[in-house]
Amino acid sequence: MPVFGHDALHALTRAVCIAGGSAAREAELVADNLVAANLAGHDSHGVGMLPLYVRCLHNRSLLPNRHAELALDRGPILVIEGGRGYGQVIGFEAMQLGLARAAEQGVALVAIRNSFHLCRIGHWAEQCAAEGFASIHFVNGVDHAPLQAPYGGRDARLSTNPFCAAVPGEDGAHVVLDMATSEIAFGKARVAANKGEPVPDESLLHPEGHVSRDGAVMFQDPRGAMIAMGEHKGSGLAIMCELLAGAFTGGLTNQPEHPQKGGTINNMLSVIIAPDALGERDAVRREIGAALAWIKSARPRAGFEEVLVPGEPERRHRAARLAHGIEIDPQSWSEIRAAANAAGVADRDIDRLFG
Ligand code: NAD
Hints:
The chain is an alpha+beta fold. It has helices at residues 6-19, 24-39, 50-58, 87-105, 122-130, 186-195, 231-248, 281-296, 312-324, 330-343, 347-353, and strands at residues 3-4, 69-74, 77-81, 107-116, 134-142, 163-167, 175-179, 204-205, 211-212, 225-226, 265-273, 326-327. It is built from eleven helices and twelve strands.
């Protein structure tokens, strides 16, 4: 499998964004976010998103150079209008505002509506954790045909609605639970289809209603549907993400009467909690450390080598990929190159970056 350096992928992403009309700072934030997702092991949300982003720039469902606009500012509550701007800018600026407000008030409730793809939600939780704040995020996705079937259904009614919660850890070892509420993230069906590999069992439904292990069922017409993780519990969490992020923020939910531009709009409801809002800072930190040590001390059961806590797999991927590079399968790479060309980045400029 071809291996790419993170610096060159970062430079390519910047070049694509700038060719698509972005200011330099925006291009930098998008590149930071996509490459960080690859480094964390989530290729579903890395530079492989560029074909979607370029398509959406062209159909104007994604608008460059937008910023987080405050639609409501009341005590700990901030409502942010994303204006179909890059989620990498809207998410970053919204978290900055939310962190400042939580520092003042102890807690901030940040509602983002109508942002383009917020991508890997753990990125926003990590921005909060890096400042010592805990956070909880409910997200829904609209503007495209739904992807995920509710428990017991065979028709898609929801997006893959991610949920994320994080608490800061020692020396950057934050505990970050960040997951699609579907059994697999949508991008993982794309990556599996591109690699010609089967998806995990019980993760996709064929349009005729039976379980399929072929990621391609999500890219055909009629399309299949994604199965919720954890049966009724994951499906219930997906529905709560839909209602909290899609309706309570003043954004939109997946309903047939809402017009769709074929983009990926995310709405997100976030709670950001200051480290000393509820308990004494050092005591909280000690309690977290002791709880994690106890959890990790469980003896591994058959088939497992050790107990990991959320966020550990991503940290291990990051260390390995920083050292050894990021693998991208040939099909995904040719789609990324085609997207770069479509944005206006010539082949010779791409070749120069990857020397
Ligand atoms: P995943 O299944 O790989 O990981 C889910 C969580 O489980 C992570 O917090 C991870 O640290 C933890 N984990 C993984 N293996 C573990 C182990 N062995 N022991 C303990 N914990 C473990 O993630 P996913 O559901 O495929 O989601 C991938 C990404 O997709 C996420 O970053 C999510 O934010 C993103 N996403 C975004 C959208 C969007 O609309 N923007 C939609 C869906 C998903």
